[in-house]
Amino acid sequence: MKLKPGINDLLWMAAGAVALAIGILVVFHFRNAATPAAQLAFKARRTDLVGRMQLDLASASEAEKSAVLATTDQDSQTCADQARAAAAKVVLAQQKMGELLAIGGTQDEQELLTQFATAFTEFQRLDKELLALAVKNTNLKASSLTFGPATTALKEMDAVLARLATDDGCEGVGYADSTRIAAWRLLTLLPPHIAEEDEKKEDAMEAVMAVEDSQVRKGLEALAALPNFTNNPALATATAHYAEFSQLRTQILALSRENTNVRSLSISLNQKRKIMLVCQDTLSALQQAIAAEPIAGLTGGTPALPR
Length: 307
Fold this sequence. Notes:
Layout: H1 7-33, H2 36-69, H3 73-104, H4 107-134, H5 138-168, H6 173-188, H7 190-195, H8 199-225, H9 233-258, H10 260-291, E1 298-299, E2 302-303
Antiparallel strand pairs: 1-2
Helix pairs in contact: 2-3, 2-4, 2-10, 3-4, 4-10, 5-6, 5-9, 6-8, 8-9
């Protein structure tokens, strides 16, 4: 007498068949994944990704330095955009590397990637600060005003005062010469102020400038008080040239105080350079760790030679 299988028996048989099929697929998958060729391909994929991260990191750093050293706002902005774009590529590669290491990376490799992520976050923070400064170019603009229109205004004043002193004979020579000397001394203080990073030293320079400015104004007033120079149009022209210089000096000092070029260069040469080295060293260590992964049947990434 034959017994017919019940519903429960059929269900158990079906479940067993499914489990067996899944088990076969899992074994087949891991057997293939564990082959030396598959492991080599996985290692090569991660090594290549680290290499691209290193290249993009170098590109971001190079573009940042170009932004700092560029002499125009447009060039600085172009280089700053390039630096940000290269850094964005590093971020994407870093995320992809995290996914790959989660699948088949070692604990050391995951820790190295975490170390890189921490350092690269600081890299990006410094980039954000210095690139925002670099594109303003306030020190370059201050220098351009100093050696351009400000110097021209003083030259015009100096030429007028030189002619007035000659025309007047001896009476106004002393006032004219002292005024001219004080004005040129004032001009020579602007370039070091533009290059200075320390605010206290800038304060000291501006205090000296105030003294020289007072000497110039007193000299012009003394000349105007002389009978031969009363209502003199040439002296009025010289005074107007100095007023123009004074307005430009105010602009120059304001730009110099922002110190965007000086500050961005300082960040680039100090904090940024140090964190860049940390990022590079960490990526190199990660690349070496991946390369050192053992693969059965292979030695140093190449097939083992038979004995």
